[in-house]
Amino acid sequence: MENNKMMGVKIQDYASNMESNNYPFFDFSEDKGSLGSMELLGAQDYSPLLDFPLSPHVSGPQTSSVKEPPETKKECSEVTNNNQQPATPNSSSISSASSEVFYDEQNKTVDQAPEHQKTKEQLKAKKTNQKRQREPRFAFMTKSEVDHLEDGYRWRKYGQKAVKNSPFPRSYYRCTSVSCNVKKRVERSFSDPSIVVTTYEGQHTHPSPVMGRSNNFGSVIMSGSAGNYMSQYYRQQHQQVHIDALSSLGFLSSSSSRNATFPQETALLSDYGLLQDVVSSHMFERR
DNA sequence: CGCGTTTGACCGGCGC
DNA sequence: GCGCCGGTCAAACGCG
């Protein structure tokens, strides 16, 4: 793995970067015990991210026909071939690392009505009236044995599709909470099956049913999708690590041409809601 | 029985 | 217009 600077990737560049293993992510799977550090495994100096136009679909280079996924079932407890540790959907068993990679700053106009509460006709009518607006999306890569990472929310799977040029399927989940229209997609990296790419869309309108609102970082009402998920995720999976992760991000994006707006760790602890801004703006700042 | 998953069908967007 | 593709629906099914 090369050790270039880590930046974000445009979501449309993501797949192609994955093809060449040039995507940023952290790995602290070697440090499961302390959860105190993470290692940048690979990254590249990616193109600017601030105003990247997120394509409606995450699509990579289309060089071949779709291959049938060899393992398309039970991705919630799937064990990848390069790891023999037992994989369970529980957070305690997850050996993972993550760093968010892209965040859709566009398409801020969101459809607030819960998709799953609409009738077909309503959906149809809506779609005919205007182009479908997407929630802000936020994705990150996780080195994990399990596809569906425990993030404190309850999800219901509503679809699965084979991913073009990848043997691994993509799963579609919706938050089970009523009036919460958050969705997420989970797929495994084609080039590195140990990496799971999770893409969140929308914002939770409720606190985490699992986490509640109290943890080491105090009561949290998330604002902003990225912070919502990332904070939630890190608080649960690596309560200490997220600080290191952000520090690493600061280090990684320490290009001299950028504005240095990375806050102090102490600020992060109190200013929880800015995690997404911290990370996103920080990572996406360079252009 | 309730809830979540599976899976084929369907739909809309998009490129040719 | 047609076909491809990503995303979603919904009935059937599984499980606790």
Automatic annotation (TrEMBL):
Coiled coil: none annotated. It is found in: Nucleus. Residues 78-90 have a biased composition (Polar residues). Residues 68-77, 105-124 have a biased composition (Basic and acidic residues). Residues 144-209 form the WRKY domain. Keywords: DNA-binding, Nucleus, Transcription, Transcription regulation. It holds the Pfam family WRKY. It comes from Glycine max. It comes from the Eukaryota. Residues 48-134 are annotated as: Disordered. One of its GO terms (molecular function) is DNA-binding transcription factor activity. This is WRKY transcription factor. GO terms for cellular component: nucleus. Belongs to the WRKY group II-c family. InterPro entries: TF_WRKY_IIc (IPR017396), WRKY_dom (IPR003657), WRKY_dom_sf (IPR036576), WRKY_plant (IPR044810). The keyword Transcription applies.
